[in-house]
């Protein structure tokens, strides 16, 4: 969902959620709605203009879930995005007095739901490192419950097939995890839709940055007497993020750019990829006066690099790394304030800085 995103605003995302989820054509017959992490994009202050918009959507969703007896599951996503804010939906439910089968999940666990007749495993993001430990924890929980297989798995993170083969990453093993489920694995994190065996990666409900040109939306799944199937429901109102390559600026170049921008709706994000910063700033200066409702940015094109030689560690292993919380006191405050810049100061400058700081500590 990525609510409170700095580029694709929450009022737009919420309007999409109303269209695709709250007003789903067969909403009354749904059994469960799953949000597989990253409901929020960043920490949202309570004085934000979007708080009421988001809480109104949560209220309406919970009210409808109560009316039609629909279960709602909300998984904690990437810590730097959700920051435990998804728990707000629990508070909203309590405030409106709704009675909904709602679960907010922030650790690896298994749900055995006898009323609904399903078993679901949950794996939030960054639970363990390396990620193989998540698999070990899940299989241990299954063994405790005497379960050889679960109906579903809800995860946040990534599988190895979602990255180019030349990336060096710590990702979930798709072959191992698929052996643990009878029907589907739902996983959030990567913004591109993917269907891989039993794995459904819905991607993001909308576009949030350049490079996300592929269709966005939500996934629907159904299990009945004849089998199981899934379909991807496209968000036809996804924000436009378009990159235009510009090598030289001529009259024809400006005409072609203008024609391309005219095809995009207001508030679209247009990025110029140029060979130098001056051309980019000139293009932005020119076109932002013509298209005042568009958002213009630029990127200077880098030299082509052999992608096979690129390596990227997406989920680093942090075994052996221990963080220690340090309490600030009058005795250590000066040292903590100077630690980052001490090597850039002369001894005389350091003594003077310590004198100034100590003079203001009471």
Describe this structure in words.
- This protein is an alpha/beta fold and 362 residues long.
- The protein folds into three domains: 10-234, 4-Layer Sandwich (Purple Acid Phosphatase, chain A, domain 2), CATH 3.60.21; 241-300; 326-362, no CATH class.
- It has helices at 10-22, 51-68, 79-82, 88-96, 132-145, 174-178, 251-262, 277-290, 333-338, 347-360, and strands spanning 32-35, 71-75, 102-105, 109-113, 118-123, 150-157, 181-189, 194-196, 199-201, 217-224, 227-234, 241-245, 269-274, 295-300.
- A six-stranded mixed beta sheet has the order 4-5-6-7-9-8. A three-stranded parallel beta sheet has the order 1-2-3, with helices on one face.
- Strand 10 and strand 11 (227-234) form a beta hairpin.
- The model is unreliable at 311-324 (pLDDT under 50).
